Description:
The structure holds 2 protein chains of 2 kinds. By secondary structure, chain A is an alpha+beta fold. Chain A has 9 helices and 7 strands; from the N terminus they run E-E-H-E-E-E-E-E-H-H-H-H-H-H-H-H. Chain A has helices at residues 33-46, 118-125, 147-157, 164-168, 175-185, 189-192, 195-208, 219-223, 231-242; strands at residues 3-9, 18-24, 69-70, 73-74, 96-100, 109-111, 114-115. In chain A, the strands form 2 sheets. Chain A has a 5-stranded mixed sheet. Chain A has a two-stranded antiparallel sheet with strand order 6-7. In chain A, strand 6 and strand 7 (114-115) form a beta hairpin. The mean pLDDT of chain A is 95. By secondary structure, chain B is mainly alpha-helical. Chain B is built from 8 helices and 2 strands. Chain B has helices spanning 8-34, 42-53, 55-83, 101-104, 106-130, 146-156, 158-185, 193-221, and strands spanning 135-138, 141-144. Chain B has a two-stranded antiparallel ribbon with strand order 1-2. In chain B, strand 1 (135-138) and strand 2 (141-144) form a beta hairpin. In chain B, helix 1 packs across helix 7 and helix 1 (8-34) runs parallel beside helix 8. The longest helix of chain B has 29 residues, at 55-83. Chain B starts with 7 loop residues before the first helix and ends with a helix.
Amino acid sequence: MKVKLKIWRQKDARSKGKFEEYELDNVAPDMSFLEMLDSLNQRLIKEGKSPVAFEYDCREGICGSCGMYINGRPHGNDHKTTTCELRMRKFKDGDTITVEPWRAAAFPVVKDLVVDRSAFDKIIQAGGYVSVNAGAAHDANAIPVPKHNADVAFDMASCIGCGACVAACKNASAMLFVAAKVTHLAQFPQGRIEAPERAKRMVAKMDELGFGSCTNTRACEAECPKGITISAIAKLNREFIFNKHNDS
Amino acid sequence: MTNIFNSSIGKKLIMSITGIFLMLFLLVHLTVNLMLMVGDGELFNRAAHFMGTNPAVKVIEPLLAIGFVFHIFYATYITLQNQRRRPIRYSTSAFNEVTTWPAKNMYILGLTIFIFLIIHLTNFFWKIRFGTVETITYGNESMPNIYALVSGLFINYWWYGVLYIVGAIALGLHLSHGFWSAFQTLGMNGTKWIKRLETLAYIYAILIGTGFSMIPIYFFLF
């Protein structure tokens, strides 16, 4: 199949970027979106031009690095997928595909489609951990955890920190990400103790780093490749508003 | 402890609490207004007189004004702040499966309601409180004839009717998101409750939207 690509090109963080158009023939429908970009880059390299910079690592939907905004949606128009899992058969022959980087004040563009997502790391550093020395791996069943809590924790832990929630949100809010991390760690006895303090610290960091506030549009849950829902945000709000902080 | 209302969640909490308060007010307001369509207006006039003279209402009235002011002020503040969170906009946009139009346009709907509110207050509240309204006597009790004021407006000026219907529709759309959103912000939501709250939101929004729209239509037709 044949596609027309409109890709955001930006030399570095300081340069002003612009869209550039490329036409690509011989695209196999079973190619992933990243493989399609690889074939474009091969051609650009052969032509002596600068290849399109994009981030990737695992190419199996679990690392969260391949975020890009495709035709108006994070990770493209497919359900619960990352860009590396998006197949070219989801597009029609002759389609024009617009590819942009995540747009958020907290995620500045590094080059082309690559953005700096270290703001997420800073939020984790602010409280996304359990601060006890756990030592060597313990027996998994030493502290029994109810099935429901284990399930919720697992669902929340499936967050890969890709930033699609921020990219999709009209306020560039990181609430779904923070909510997933806070809810995940609050499900277990060890993490429960610090839960209100953790919520307070992570939300304060999120606000400080320039993410917007949540207006419950649900765009984040529609775009989350891992299917995390805004029920996590309700849990975060509960933790933040109703539980007393240990602050004496 | 740092002040909760300095945080992003705290500011939303103000929107949520004032929103729930205003939604309760709307129910009372609609109940009284629907009496406009009962009989010759005596029931409505008596209800309006009761509301105007009741000491409890006198206490709640300034609170209501504060509720409106906080809801509008924080909405503006949050919206302006959030707009700065994406300095470079996307060149493309697409619909997703769950985001509704009102959810994305709460501020525009709110602004429409705010403009309507100013017109509405000048039409009725201002005249009743600070102007002169003719009185009517039922038995040995006399009271302002607010029924005549309302019916006169809608019968003599058809475009006021249209304006009020537009206001009611904007309000209904605003509430279709605002109702469940208020509970979500308070943390009272979950995977099961979201469907229930959304259903309740639609019922409430339709009740308020059509309820208030019916009044100008009633005066136009009958």
